[in-house]
Write the structure tokens for this entry.
Amino acid sequence: MRNIWTICRRELYSYFVSPIAWVLLTIFAFLSGVFTYIISASFVRYSLEGQMSGQSMPMNVNEQVIAPLFSNIAVVGLFLIPLISMRLFAEEKRMGTIELLITSPVHDLEIILGKWLASLLMYCALLAVLAADYSFLFMYGNPDWKPVATGFLGIVLQGACLLSFGAFISTLTRNQIVAGAIGFALALVLWILNWTTSFGNSVAVQVLNYLSIVSHMDSFSRGVIDTKDLIYYISMIFLGLFLTARSLESMRWRA
Amino acid sequence: MIQVEGLSKRYAHHVAVNNISFSVEKGDIVGFLGPNGAGKTTTMRILTCFMPPTSGKATVAGFDVFDQPFEVKKHIGYLPEAPPLYPEMNVQDYLAFVARLKNMPGSEIKSRTEQVMERCAVADVKDKLISKLSKGYRQRVGLAQAIIHNPDVLILDEPTSGLDPKQINETRELIKSLSGEHTIILSTHILPEVEAVCQKVIIIDKGKLVATDSVENLKARGSVSTAIQVQVDTRGAADALVVRQRLEQVPGVSKVLEKIIADNRFIYEVESLQGQNPRPDVARAVVNAGWNLLELKSTTLTLEDIFLELTGTHEHPTPEVPHEPVTAPDSVEGGAQ
């Protein structure tokens, strides 16, 4: 446990003394701010129009602002996560510091969990910006907090899942850019898998749709914690970390 | 402290380490000597549990590197060829991180870090980022991280490579000063380094063990008769033959060879019988004859010669071949055509 925390702490240190954390925070703050503004502005205009025409339309901040915001942010996450995970092992391999980690009395699993946890905390730092955006909705409206909480849970799980795969990809190369590019491609594929639903409803399509990472976010952002989605995310996290462990082990045999 | 038996490491297309065996006693400083690509780094990586061997057995501090890597790692300090430093950290934080990584209790970390920084002469840069340090400092920080948990065994992969002569000397002194508490293996392809630092040498070439012996024994192997080189200035009073005859009369001298004869300065190689030291007598003979003695030095076979003999590359120790001069006129002609 102590070793995991030691490695995690050093990793976080590196994120925040290098420009990467601040660049990511800036990009994310800008994008989430733009999305929050656009979606809530159109919600306000829509409700004003409703009042002026005298018709009473059902208006709901949770369904009309928060849920679409979460799905937009989930997509933004797909693009930013490879930038968080790409350095995890590639940089250690390039600098030769991997030799220090591997020849120290720590288990491979502790190295992997420490690094993965650090990347997850880095991702949560980005989401803190989103929470700040949401605080305005709570200030001026009266949304239900429960779907917001489940939405955050879903988006963290999705990130944890992609980060575990990002860590795996990072063990395959000593070049951060390569790791970033492959991670990006993988995120893209996992995202567009649910577009296959337009090809009917065969078993293959259902399977592909189940594998798609974004489709599991929907119920979370509506305030529902579905066991099916929870199992999907947790098993994907395990798969990613397992592959990372195997890859790290095989690297030593080949090295 | 270290036992290696029949160790091999094979890759798909070549054998990096081929069936080597040696042992290192507690407190020894052992030089691991070989040309580049001989398998030094591979052997060290196996000993530090960075990679497993293909076959054979190695134990460090009584623990097997394959079966009990965790125990081995606790007893080893390792400085890879490129010091494993995080450029974005400062020296103090970095060493504290390594100390935690080596399972040092939290209460001891601060004092031990200070102590090691003093020891390795990096205390004056403790707040500097590693990326801003010179190569010599980086190497010393690398050494500091290797000894921070006070390991029984220190494994240093080319600890002086890429340093300037002053830094090389400092690093050697530092390594020597560590010898009391630690068993040290250091790899190098520089022979004077082994002579300066080590008590024992293990020579490998192309993955195979060539020799393992003490530095003294190895030197004694080549120097059955010790030769001395004498430079004499006769100020025109005598010619080379006279000088030579005078030298041959000195007791204990077996053979005198003329090496360079120029103007009035003559250089001779004087070989002596085994166990005799004719140097004082040679000096006296020259001075009594009224000549100037310009130089008197012993030319025992260096470790270099022994090494080249053992690795079978004695004839052509890769001489510096000057590049064929690319003559400018040719290229001008070519351009004009």
